[in-house]
Design a protein that fits this description.
15% strand; 7-stranded mixed sheet; Aspartate Aminotransferase, domain 2; 12 strands; 385 residues; 14 helices
């Protein structure tokens, strides 16, 4: 897929904005109306109504997100999980089978393992970087393959080009969660992915003040997802739409700072004697570094690391840090740090976490926009103490 002529920074600011501007306002107002006048729509899904995701705030966001992902259509949802679950429940039906990357965000993993089979659908986990193993897990009922651009929390990079080729060969819908990467670092639909989902709660909004999600892709695939969402009711409210639109306008400058700072911090941690291992695709010793360097425009603001002293040492470091706050989310202007075993992946039992490499002492670090030197100094005093 070819890139659009305008740069992504221009699209972040101008795509989806009303033309002409409403009463000359540079900022699109919040349309805090649940109901709109009937104008002759014959299809229920074309009625103007807030739950049907078609207020002016929704419509503008849909156009902006589609432009950023360089694809035909996009849709915002009430959360990242609303985007993920609604997409999967649209693509899959009872009796269908899904291939999913082995290491996933805990909420997605829980949905697959606790809910999907109850609804009559099956799944199999696959190692994202071992395409030679995928055919043996394929079934006649397989309909889709699901991966993350950068896995949460191990920062593994699947063989994305192989996923696209495999999906096309076997007529599967290819779905990718690109939350960690953002459209600044990679636009998966340009690689050939059918659908791309995001938790907009994180980088796309970037200010830790809303919960939102999005799905982007070809119109023929997004439109059925929109209709499912209309029935399930996972609608993003207009005020959250307004905040997400505002946050998106600074996405490029924010993500580039996240990229730069995280790489410097990963290199610092990798050289510290108290650190046993660092997981960050920007490091040359990362197993998929070459793939990430080829496909991504930046390595992201997320990293994870393990200390030589295990979980006890991790808790002591978290207690001593002054700048990063302990919290379960990511992607905001402030640095957040947490142990996935107690937050994002607490829903997995200890054995499941061990199989995925998520030790009790693993620390996940969402690098914010503080001065990089200040963050490194803070990490150094906590590790040294």
């Amino acid at each position: 897929m070819t890139r659009k002529t305008q740069g992504i920074e221009t699209q972040l600011i101008h795509a989806g904005e009303p033309v002409p501007r409403i009463d000359g306002s540079l900022v699109t107002p919040i349309f805090q109306s649940s109901t709109y006048e009937y104008t002759g729509a014959e299809d229920y899904h074309d009625l103007r109504y807030i739950r049907l995701n078609n207020t002016p705030n929704h419509v503008g966001l849909h156009a902006k997100l589609a432009a950023l992902e360089n694809t035909e259509a996009a849709l915002v949802t009430a959360s990242g999980m609303a985007a993920i679950t609604t997409t999967l429940l649209t693509v899959l039906s009872a009796g269908d089978h899904l291939l999913a990357q082995r290491c996933l965000y805990g909420g997605t993993h829980d949905f697959l393992t606790h809910d999907l089979e109850r609804m009559g659908m099956a799944f199999s986990f696959i190692p994202g970087d071992r395409p030679d193993t995928w055919p043996e897990r394929l079934r006649p009922q397989t309909r889709a393959v699901y991966v993350e651009a950068m896995s949460n929390p191990m920062l593994e990079i699947p063989d994305l080009e192989a996923v696209v080729a495999f999906a096309r060969e076997h007529k599967l819908v290819s779905i990718i969660d690109a939350t960690f990467a953002t459209p600044i670092n990679i636009r998966p639909c340009e690689l050939g992915f059918d659908l791309c989902v995001h938790s907009c709660t994180k980088y796309l909004n970037g200010h830790s003040d809303i919960v939102a999600g999005a799905v982007a892709g070809r119109t023929e695939l997004v439109e059925p997802i929109r209709r499912t969402l209309n029935h399930l009711g996972g609608t993003l409210d207009p005020h959250a739409c307004f905040l997400l639109n505002r946050g998106l306008k600074t996405l490029a400058v924010r993500v580039r700072q996240h990229n730069e700072s995280a790489l410097a911090i990963a290199r610092f941690l990798a050289s510290h004697p108290a650190v046993a291992r660092v997981h960050y695709p920007g490091l040359e010793n990362h197993p998929q570094h070459a793939t990430a360097a080829r496909l991504f425009d930046g390595f992201g603001g997320m990293l994870s690391f393990e200390l030589t002293g295990g979980a006890d040492a991790a808790d002591r470091v978290l207690d001593r840090l002054r700048l990063p706050m302990s919290g379960p989310s990511l992607g905001g202007v402030e640095s957040l740090i947490t142990r996935p075993a107690t937050t994002s992946h607490a829903g997995l039992d200890p054995e499941q976490r061990r199989e995925l490499g998520i030790t009790d002492g693993l620390i996940r670090f969402s690098v914010g926009l503080e001065t990089t030197r200040d963050l490194i100094d803070d990490l150094e005093q906590a590790l040294t103490a």
